[in-house]
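Table S2 (text version). Query chain:
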Amino acid sequence: MAGNAHHYRLRTVWTGAGAHGTRDYGEYGRDFRAEVGGKPALLGSADPAFRGDAMRHNPEDWMLAAVASCHMLSYLALCARRRLQVLAYEDESEATLVLTPDGGGAFDGFTLRPVVTIAQDADAALASRLHEQAHALCFIARSCAVPIDVQPVIRHVGAD
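Corresponding structure-token output:
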């Protein structure tokens, strides 16, 4: 298995310490930088509901982006392998974080709504079915313990 494994590294640096660090819950900064070698740093913060910077992405944004983008990339790979020509792909996905009384919480599921435009002569039924296979193969979806509902819409190019 080790020969087929891919290892990922991330360095996370808290940049919100200011002069006093976490001396006071209401005063410390939630900003951080996530670094992956050789790539631009990702600037993050907590969600504004948790005293974060609304102008930065938060881990919850990234979780939803990971689920949605992994599904998309798995789907596009399957379409290319089946010679099903996809011309456009957009997704209005969403997730709900449910908070618990102990201060924690978890996502209760994700909903993906990909709208896929395929070539005029492409098989719409196959385009729809490949979403199920993409979901089953998606690395991120397979790593999640909550439901991920995929609600695809398939359009032929030029169709309204």
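Notes on Table S2: The mean pLDDT is 93. The first strand starts at residue 11 and ends at 14.
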